[in-house]
Amino acid sequence: MKVSDLVEKYGLKVFSGKEGLGKTIEGGYVSDLLSDVMGNAAENEVWITLQTHQNVMAIASLKDLAAVILVKGLEPDEDTLEHSREEEIPLLGTAMGTFEMAGKLYADLNPGSQS
Amino acid sequence: MAIELNFTIEGGDFSNAGKASSKIKKVLKQLNIEAKIIKKIVVAVYEAEVNVAAHAYSGNVKALVGENDVVVMVSDSGPGIENVELAMKEGYSTASKEVREMGFGAGMGLANIKRNTDELKIETKVGEGTTVTFSLNYS
Ligand SMILES: Nc1ncnc2c1ncn2[C@@H]1O[C@H](COP(=O)(O)OP(=O)(O)O)[C@@H](O)[C@H]1O
Ligand SMILES: [Mg+2]
């Protein structure tokens, strides 16, 4: 599944970094603790968070994440947008909460897991 | 011959945290250092940078990229660490409420550094500052 497929399927808002929409998603990570993401997220995962400041994109770039999804309709800070554009990593948004968004992504990446 | 990279960090300046780790990542990539090594060192440098921003007044990062290893020294002038053993404990943090609300201050930084390096040394003097030195061998 590509980042663009996820955007389309759930009507996610693309704030910035659309150059990276063609990346393939290999997993997901959910956390609002930056050191937790730094220590445990893996390359090409999608990070779901409610943090909106620019360190989020710094981490996404350092960890080579596929995309970041901001939940609950949260809006990114201006420098977060800039960083996302520079790094060409999609910064996405949804009105969904973390639980719902993560559940959908999990099901998409693990077909057959709900049987 | 080692390549030397230097960066400065100001206390409280989270917007620049990640600059040193990002640049070091780029240089290591250009030098064709193994991806596994880059991933680890980047975690350690980022955490050390954030610690200067979160806990100290000002500091600098010096990275020595050698033929067999990369050595990073992060020195700051700051409050120092009273009890290093306690500070190393996962979950221990003296970060302010504001810093915690940003998602920093989980008390996992030093543990992340330890886990991703081969050697870690913390030299600190209360009221003066801290130097965190760590290294990672390529093979
Ligand atoms: N450079 C530093 N100067 C002063 N104190 C520090 C420094 N680095 C770490 N510490 C102390 O060690 C604690 C644990 O650090 P760390 O594991 O990185 O967690 P966190 O930064 O999330 O609090 C900090 O809360 C702080 O009390
Ligand atoms: Mg820390």
UniProtKB/TrEMBL annotation, chain A:
SUPFAM superfamilies: HprK N-terminal domain-like. This is DRTGG domain-containing protein. Homohexamer. It comes from the Bacteria. InterPro entries: Ser_kin/Pase_Hpr-like_N_sf.
Automatic annotation (TrEMBL), chain B:
Keywords: Kinase, Transferase. SUPFAM superfamilies: ATPase domain of HSP90 chaperone/DNA topoisomerase II/histidine kinase. InterPro entries: HATPase_C_sf, HATPase_dom. Residues 18-135 form the Histidine kinase/HSP90-like ATPase domain. This is Anti-sigma regulatory factor (Ser/Thr protein kinase). The keyword Membrane does not apply. GO terms for molecular function: kinase activity.
